[in-house]
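Severity: low
Component: inverse-folding endpoint
Summary: output formatting inconsistent between runs
Steps to reproduce: submit the following structure tokens with default settings.
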């Protein structure tokens, strides 16, 4: 989510207070200079907020701050700019409860209260205050729509995805915003709601409108296409991205993943060959993806063994159940088979298994190799851990 771990960037627009035409910036971004107070009284150097929504359908209200509440509003603003969030909430609630406060006063109070609540990790209160901002409807378009956008984001962040999407739909309909970083939020919400067909054009619009779309935007698009049954289109997107960025490991790994999902194992292996030859595999998940692709590709047992041995030697791969199982199977189905190495890997995998099935497979292989005593012991361990086919295990145990 945009807001998570970025609390200093919550208030992204200037808040026009109408107190002598001043504007107040985010508490962190604003100047802390000694002449701040005098600037608030209406200096000629004050910045005027840029209209962020020139095409909005909403008519901006003309109501200004109530002169009678000037001191209370300034107290509210000062406490927020000084990051005294409990004081901000108290000042905001006083204004919201004041019968003399007009729609602008209450909208501003609710907006700053929402920021203070969010900064205090109280998302529920922030959502409540943001709803009040929209209900009072007293801010200019900048403040009104930024509050609406934040409300949608927080609703999604709190797993109220359907509500958040409805808020975002209203936001885009009324603000006419086409900002890519905002469209992607809607695209992700649609994806989370499993409305993949609807998510695809929104995500595409975000990517097309951005000069530097993030990697996860492209991944989201491919995931939506895949979930929508458009695997071929997802592969084409991945191919185009990889061709555009031939030296980008992430793009190549994404392409290999899409080939894997499309059951195009030979193509996935070809991509992985290039990454492996270039020494670009550096993370555990990359090694796991590589040996998984090779394990599902015909006649690639040597590559499975190569990747696993290399990963284990470098300490990148952890010696876990899946690693040993893949190593065992690769050695067993190698041409010619390396049965002793396969048995060794199965013996390491079996104790790490959640049940006794691996022990039973080990017992069968040991039996076929004439290692009866070891086969019986493995079969007993299989029964002890639990297997579906107990008859097979008992048959091996009862061998003469």
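Observed output (run 2 of 3):
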């Amino acid at each position: 989510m945009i807001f998570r771990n970025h609390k200093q960037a919550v208030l992204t627009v200037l808040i026009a207070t109408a107190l002598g035409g001043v504007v107040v910036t985010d508490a962190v971004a604003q100047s802390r200079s000694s002449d701040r107070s005098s600037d608030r009284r209406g200096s000629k150097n004050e910045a005027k907020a840029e209209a962020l929504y020139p095409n909005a359908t909403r008519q901006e209200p003309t109501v200004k701050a109530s002169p009678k509440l000037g001191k209370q509003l300034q107290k509210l603003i000062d406490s927020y700019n000084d990051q005294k969030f409990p004081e901000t909430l108290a000042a905001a609630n006083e204004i919201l409860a004041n019968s003399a406060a007009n729609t602008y006063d209450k909208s501003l109070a609710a907006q700053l209260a929402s920021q203070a609540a969010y900064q205090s990790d109280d998302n529920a209160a922030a959502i409540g205050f943001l709803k009040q901002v929209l209900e009072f409807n007293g801010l200019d378009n900048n403040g009104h729509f930024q509050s609406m956008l934040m409300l949608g984001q927080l609703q999604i962040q709190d797993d109220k995805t359907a509500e958040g999407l409805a808020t975002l739909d209203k936001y885009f309909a009324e603000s006419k915003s086409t900002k890519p970083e905002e469209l992607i939020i809607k695209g992700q919400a649609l994806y989370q709601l499993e409305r993949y067909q609807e998510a695809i054009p929104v995500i595409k619009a975000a990517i097309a409108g951005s000069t530097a779309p993030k990697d996860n935007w492209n991944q989201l698009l491919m995931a939506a296409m895949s979930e929508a049954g458009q695997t071929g289109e997802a592969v084409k997107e991945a191919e185009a991205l990889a061709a555009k960025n031939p030296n980008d490991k992430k793009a190549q790994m994404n392409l290999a993943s899409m080939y894997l999902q499309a059951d195009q194992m030979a193509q996935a292996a070809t991509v992985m060959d290039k990454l492996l030859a270039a020494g670009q595999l550096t993370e555990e998940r990359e090694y796991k993806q590589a040996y998984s692709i090779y394990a599902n590709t015909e006649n690639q047992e040597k590559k499975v063994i190569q990747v696993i041995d290399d990963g284990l030697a470098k300490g990148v791969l952890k010696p876990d159940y899946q690693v040993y199982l893949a190593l065992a199977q690769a050695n067993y189905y190698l041409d010619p088979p390396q049965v002793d190495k396969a048995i060794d890997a199965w013996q390491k995998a079996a104790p790490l298994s959640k049940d006794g099935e691996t022990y039973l497979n080990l017992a069968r292989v040991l039996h076929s190799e004439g290692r009866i005593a070891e086969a019986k012991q493995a079969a007993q361990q299989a029964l002890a851990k639990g297997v579906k086919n107990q008859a097979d295990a008992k048959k091996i145990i009862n061998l003469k």
